Amino acid sequence: MGYAGAKRKGASFPPPAACAATPCKRPSRAAAPAMEEWRDWASLHPDLMDLIAARVLAADVVDYMSLRAVCARWRSSAPSPRDPTLRDVRFLPRGWVALCDGDGVRPADACEVAFLHTATGRCLRVRLPELRGHRIVGFTDGLLILINKDTTAVRVLHPFTRAAVDLPPMAAVFTHVAKDIRSRAWMRAAVCKSQTSDSIAVVAWFPTVPGVVIAEPGFPSWLIVYHNVELTTAVTFQGRVYGVISNQRQVVQVYPQCPNPCIAHIPNTFGIPQTQAFFLVECAARLMLVLRYVYIGGNIEGYQPYGFALFEVDTAGHGGLTPMSSLGDWALFLGVERCLSVSRNNLPSVTSDAIFFDTGNLYPVAMYSVNSGMCEQISTLSIIHDFTKRIRPSVRPFTLADHLFTFCYHRQWSRGLMFHEYHCLPTSWKELSRKHKAQDREVQVKSLGGSSSRSRSVKKARCTKNNCSSAAGTTH
User: Fold this and answer.
1) CB contact set of 437 (below 8 Å; sequence gap of 6+)
2) Rounded Cα–Cα distance for residues 49 and 370 (Å)
């Protein structure tokens, strides 16, 4: 059928060990007669070197690593970006998003991921042998969240420095909380600041069952912080995880925990409540809530199946929601697993003051203009099937919007498939459907009664489950 091909290869970003620095060699004047004045760049004044390094690091950690690789003196004068705790925000790969090759090969199987820096448009393909035997379950600030398919242990990996933080296995959670295959295969997770240590924490929730669990390095097991809460969407913002509880119409601080987790109530004045969808996204250093509703207005020319309402969330003073009327130079990409904001100033090919979203029909991707209130279908000429059979081959090259939108839909991205092509599978594509079902069953929880160590894990999990209310403080 042609839906999977050979993995495309590109230039890989070398690990820091490959950037072994050597002293800068002084060129002779005979070799460079046009050079009026030779400068010993390796011997810059320490204060000037510190200033240059700080400015480069503020822009991007990858450029900072390249700066350290210039020569031995520069490398020794600039602190190592390999933070073993992954807590120092200066060294996080912020602004880097993962691209999809669209060849049907999972990045975890190929052990490589292509990244795009949304502030500069720079692309890097990174070889990551650490992905072998793992599933990629999420991203936060460029960090990869992995789960081991055999042990269910969770790992947070920095793709450029290769620093990693390990967390306890999820086996007990899968046994007592998220028991179905879909929850195991498509658990969602986010990285945030630890509440109890100088490292990080990982918050996990599930698409089909209520419950929110957290773990930190050194924890013996995962803790259930909320029993009956089902998060519709969640995002990390300024080191904290915020989420939306749809049935209560609340924006809450999920972790670190606080006495009053509700920070805003969502208004119920837009369309039919049952048709509304909620999205949280960081945009221009602000946390935004996007409310999508089915448009039921009068006769308006143009394509307008949905309307959108934008709000800024006051996370500092719990001051609720402030309506917004424009996105300025920014564009939003709204997905089920995550959302993304990019600036037209950095990526000129992306339309500004616009929202890209899934329509749920044959032409899945549409763009909503915040200024005009009109929608435009942008995937009409690139769909490859009509829900029944293939109607055309893959339309290449993919647009930047195709890549950014696919990043927001982890199910397609993690399978190496573009969202606008594989947002659903025709019933006739049985071979591909069987392949996906087999992949979803990869994370298997072995029988917990097989050995003494397994038995101790069960007892520990049951103890954790019974005592989780005291750990959670306030449960909903």
Assistant:
1) none
2) 45
In angstroms, the CA 267 to CA 245 distance is 13
Q: What residue spans of 139-273 are helical by DSSP H?
A: 171-176, 181-185
Which residues of 14-130 form beta strands (DSSP E)?
96-99, 112-117, 123-127
Backbone angles phi, psi at 248, to 5 degrees: -105, -5
Rounded Cα distance between 387 and 363, Å, is: 11
Task: Identify the burial level of 334 via C-beta atoms within 10 angstroms of its C-beta, where 0-12 means exposed, 13-18 middle and 19 or more buried.
Answer: buried
How many whole angstroms separate alpha carbon 142 and alpha carbon 152? Answer: 22
Q: State how far the alpha carbon of 232 is from the alpha carbons of 48, 330, 365, in Å.
A: 48, 24, 20
| Burial classification of residue 102, based on how many CB atoms lie within 10 Å of its CB (0-12 exposed, 13-18 middle, 19 or more buried) | buried
Residue 36, CB half-sphere, CA atoms under 13 Å: how many?
Answer: 0
State how far the Cα of 137 lies from the Cα of 206, in Å rounded to an integer.
Answer: 11
Residues 56-108: tens digit of each pLDDT: 999 999 999 999 999 999 999 899 999 999 999 999 999 999 999 999 999 99
Instruction: Tell me whether the omega of the peptide bond preceding residue 217 falls within 30 degrees of 0, making it cis.
Output: no
441-476 pLDDT tens trace: 998 787 555 443 333 443 344 444 444 433 434 334
Task: Kindly tell me the burial class for residue 397, based on how many C-beta atoms sit within 10 Å of its own C-beta (0-12, 13-18, 19 or more).
Answer: exposed
In terms of Cβ atoms closer than 10 Å to its own Cβ (0-12, 13-18, 19+), residue 351 is middle
Instruction: Report yes or no: 175 and 448 within 8 Å, Cβ to Cβ.
Output: yes
In DSSP notation, 344-377 reads TTT-TTSPSSEEEEE-SSSS-EEEEETTT--EEE
